[in-house]
Amino acid sequence: MSINRKYFKLFINDLFLPLIALAFLIYINYLHINCLSVNDGYLMLGKLSMLRESLLTSILCFAFFLFASYYFIDKARQDSMLECIRATSGGARIVYFRQLGVLFCVAFLFYLVYLFYNLYAYFAWNIGHFEVLGHITMCLFVYIFLVSAAAVLLGTLVALFFKRLAACLIMITIMLLVSPVALYLIEATFYGYGINLFSFYEFICLFPRDLQSIPLHSIGYSLLPDRVSAAVFYITLFLIPIMIKLLKKRSVVKYACVSLCGVICAASLTVYFLPGARTLTQDNAVGSFAVDRLYYMDEHLGSEKSEDGGFSVLKYDMELTVKNQLSAKVTMSVDNRSLDSYKFTLYHGFIITGAENQDGAPLEFTQDGDYVEVKSSGAQIASITLYYAGYNPTYFAHSQGISLPGNLPFFPRSGYQVVYDVDEQGFYSNFLDKPAEFHIRVNYGKTVYSNLDSVGNNTFSGVSDNCVLVSGFLDQTAVDGVEVVYPYLDAEQFGEEMLKADVLSFLKSREDDNPIEKIIILPYVNMGSYARCNYYSDGTIVCLQLRTLSTDYPVCLVANEKQALFALYNTYLKNHSDFENRLSIERQQYEAYPDLEPGLAIMMQDAIDRLGEDEALSAIDSFAHDRSDKRSYEEFFSSLQ
Questions:
Q1: CATH classification code of 289-465
Q2: How many CB atoms lie within 10 A of CB 369?
Q3: Average pLDDT over residues 567-572
């Protein structure tokens, strides 16, 4: 029997290890077989439902290999292993390293089991996109194998440096720190005392986020640099003290290995803290869409501005590079060359690093939140070039995908615009005051889609009043002459027949003559009501869902601040019972709290009672579609006599 087979036999012949490993393996098989047999789960969660089932067990893999590795390594310190250690030429060092090899082999075996089921699902469900297969394989490697490897090394480290009681307490504490229990405590601390520990939790927790929710179909689960580098960081961090203890003193190999691990550890930590987009996470109260909500509600409440810049942008030339974040060079040709300063709106997450005029001469600029002012210094300005980089956690642009619709001012707009609606908790649909000519090149490794015409190699050109760029697990098809860009992993919404039926249903329901050339579906995350649907002047609809497009599309044709009234107007006409229910609720609230302002349904019903249904509804329709009428709801309804 070879020495390696001997160590595998030590693992197998143990009373505890093979039984617990077999039980865990049976449990894993049960979960995956059950996932294959439940078609409803596949439809609801999409074509990544098998991967989700696998990743749900990531924390269980960590716990299993943490305690199993501690138990297996600790046996070498007991009397039953002393004879083996003495008989080995390398002593304890050889024993421990070969035990580690056995544990890594077991972890890799588990990884192969996970991979088998996911490969079976990939072919059985006819996903048919090779990039998804790569995503599945990498997710399993990072969140199953690397997490298990980190647990093996951590368990070994605890076994080598601590006695049993202390070791058990340490391992239990570690499991509590990375478990959902810790997350609940962190949330309570944040909401109760305003202390933010989410960044600490995300740093020590190697598992994927939001596994209880539907995965983001356009990008899948996070494989961004911060998640991969965190796993590498902990693996190399745990290896350093293990090698220091086990390798021979004053050995060249020891110094070389420890130094190499130290370099990798430092590099991975640096990558983790590089500025850039992070995981979309609903658990983190200061992550995802909540970042913007907190910024505009708490830190900068009332700081937004609305001011005409005195000029329009005639042409945009953009050179965009997407890696861990968006880097941009945007040249804007303006129609007024003699202003003292040029005011723009640009989302505050994009930090400007330089400004130039048409001759390449630097221009002085200031950036205050979402507002930028560029000084002309008395010179004639034909064009202004801005250099900037940054990201938004909801409207992302990173290595896994791009979702940059017109709601987010990711490119400069002339003048100062109110960007965020605190009540609706979403970005306004701010369009250019008139269509501009766009020329955009996106340096990115995946196919990018846009409302603009593609001229090859992720380069786009066209005239529009806004711009959208999307990429990821997306595909494109045509239905009745309309191009549709959609996340193909969403099996429940975008099966071939369902997609075609929803598009045709929408086209038949339309009551306007606007040209419809393209429909682009955005990832369905909490973006506020204004992102549900927007219509661009080039004939593109950008929306979150197809099935509600018949309802959402008419609403998006009116100004943002009037959409709530127009949506209620449509409810009155098409679903009158829903209107009556809302009216009843508003009247109950108004009777209970008479100091509150009456709701929209109450004001609308009062107008109908005074003027009659036809006259009141006609006035509401005209008001909603008149973008020049800036009156508030209260002012409008008061004027109806």
A1: 2.60.40
A2: 17
A3: 89
